[in-house]
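Structure tokens please, single chain.
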Amino acid sequence: MFWDSREVMLLDILPKRESIHTDRYCETLDRLRHAVRQKRPGLLRSGVVLQHDNATPHTAKRTKEWLERYKWDIIPHPAHSPDFHLFGLLKVHLGANKFEDEDKLIGEVCD
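Here you go.
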């Protein structure tokens, strides 16, 4: 999930049993860049800042090259630190519900 001060910019959900890897993460960054261009084009000129931990897809050479190419900055997110407030609230909200299928879950996350 990627957001700015106004709204969620991109919600990218992996299919079941798929894990994130560098190529997939760079594809997600491409989708994010497209979403930002559509929703807030001025943001691309003023600069995008992502918060990354030290996960392999975040620190991989290809990811770093992607970030340098588009001049996006990184601020660190220490490993094992508490979730950002949004994720804690989202977990509580979603945990109180039972979803019939993945589409309903994704719809609730988007809402």
